[in-house]
What we know:
This protein has 207 residues and is of the alpha+beta class. The chain has helices spanning 2-42, 59-71, 95-98, 135-149, 194-197; strands at 75-77, 84-88, 100-108, 114-123, 156-160, 165-172, 175-181, 187-193.
Amino acid sequence: MMKYSFMKYNKLKILCSFLLFSFLLLSCESEYTKTVNKEAQKGISKDSMVLGMSFGDTKQSFFDQCWKLNNKGLVTQGPNNRSVQYLLNSNKEDKNLTAIMMLFYGNFNENNIMTGMDMEFSYKSWAPWNDDMTSENLVPVLLDTLMNWFPGNKFITIESDKLNKETHVKVDGNRQIVLYPKDIKNVVVKIEDLKYKYPEKFKPANP
């Protein structure tokens, strides 16, 4: 009888531990998951990105827009010809020192339709000995900048196991913006169309 009670107690203990772990796991993910689900239910499309580009643009239209921006002197070729470079000036007096460099390039699906954009930011005058221009100090500046560019829901902070670092996420309708420090210098920003990432949640509206 004692052995049976002990086994029953152990099973109950294991079950409680499993339920507690599941609850903690869901709690960690709940804010992000709830936000995505809530935005999916709104059925609102937020397709704009940066510099006149949007989800659904073709790869050719991306190149055409970059060419137009280049002709206006707004963008240049990025390092190793792998990205486009855009300079953001600060409102501070010494704009050269506080200017922020943005490298960007579109993400395209198998039909050459743009489904997102990869961006990388750093201070133009960054140097290893300049503590004021690290990615850690750049993160809050970019969070404010992105909120100005994309008004709406605020960023939420999550712990990403995949990235193993603090990550900031903003979801408005089908548009998701993810921000995290890549290293001591650079901050990564990814804009994604959740209609491609979660097609089961963001279903096309009925005609």
